[in-house]
Amino acid sequence: MSRDILEGTTDTGRLRFVRRPSRATLLVVFGASLLIAGVTTLLPADPPIPVTEGGGQGVSTLDRAIRTAEAKLAKGGQDPRTWAELGAAYVEVSRVKTDPAYFPKAEEALRKSLAQQPDGNGIALAGMGALANARHDFTGARDWGEKARAALPDNAEIYGVLNDAYTQLGDTAAATATLQRMLDLKPGVSSFTRAAYEFEIHGQVDDARHALDRALADATDPGDVAFCRNLLGELAFDNGDLETAELQFDAGLRAAPQETSLQQGKAKVAAARGQTGRALAGYQDLVTRQPNVGNLREYALLLTSAGAPDSARRHYEQFEEQRRLEVASGANVDLEASLVAADRGDAGQALRFAQAEWGRRQPVFVADALAWALHLNGRDAEALAYADRAASTGWRSATFAYHRGMILAGLGRNAEAVKALADALRVNPNFSVTDVRTARATLTKLGGAG
């Protein structure tokens, strides 16, 4: 059989993309805002239960999947497979509806599956791993994923759960190894999009784009098409290409008109272009439909930038309400809480949340958050060590460069600060509706080009 191979190099080795005949999709890839990362749920293929969210009219296929499983389980008897399917569907619906109340229901269903089949129940074990990833319990996700791998060593989706966990924990070698195994077993949308992220965090933007193009070529479901288009749009935006970003977001919306991540991208592009009214309207609709912590933070920042502090405060309060709901459901959002505390000028709280998160995991984006929190507390010498850690993979992040530049300026290392701040604006001159102004003003003050 002929093989179409695409290769790219990371600092931990060479990834190989091998094109094989496609097989039935067994998973749902969860989209996230960078910061964060996707999470995978597993559904056995026999009999299949479709879990792609519908286009908006009537009952979605996801709701139908849950009803079908619940009706089957209502008949009683031992059915670990259906309990596992139901648990996986609950994890996905919690994302689609932005409702962490489904997390306990998912856990209950998955644990019932494991109680009925304690040995070799790889699907339920992987479901527990996906649930842990969704809750940002990445250590737990790793542990559940490794148990699932022992039960089903040749199941590609399990390596997706593991890759997500290891990536978020900052274990780059293990993340690369699990991704490579996933690619070897099942090249497709799920593995190519993860590969794109792997390339991006190592500064290989062209390779990341190529991997996303491969994912898009394999996408047939409208939800998968929208997911790939959104990632392509985010990659373009993060590298300063507003025109391409908007084209990708528009193409994604043609495939899935109700997809909120694409609407968020459109609002972000409008804000970057100075179309503040359009951006505010977009975010207002977005947080009404999906008031997750990421959307609420971005809207509050835009309101602050637009000179509406009272409205921004109300949305930060809504952020806190949403954060409490997620914590009550077993989720961890300390990273997001640290970023919001920093936005609001609460340096002490920002540092407490960042230190708590660093105690759990050490990926580069948590290193950056901790560096920034230390800077806000006047501890620039300590902050620089974490800023160095954030830069260690070569990620072309304008935010990382901005934070590093401000830390260097605080240390009086002005020439280095100018370079870092100029790099931030070169990579993405629209990386933040608030921080771009500070970057330019600081450059001017230090004698650089503002």
UniProtKB/TrEMBL annotation:
**Which domain of life, per UniProt?**
Bacteria
Ranges for the TPR repeats: 156-189, 398-431
Query: Which keywords label this protein?
Result: Membrane, Repeat, TPR repeat, Transmembrane, Transmembrane helix
Tell me which InterPro entries the record gives. Answer: O-mannosyl-transferase_TMTC, TPR-like_helical_dom_sf, TPR_rpt
Record-linked SUPFAM superfamilies: TPR-like
Chain ranges passing through the membrane:
24-43
UniProt name for this protein: Tetratricopeptide repeat protein
| Species | Amycolatopsis alba DSM 44262
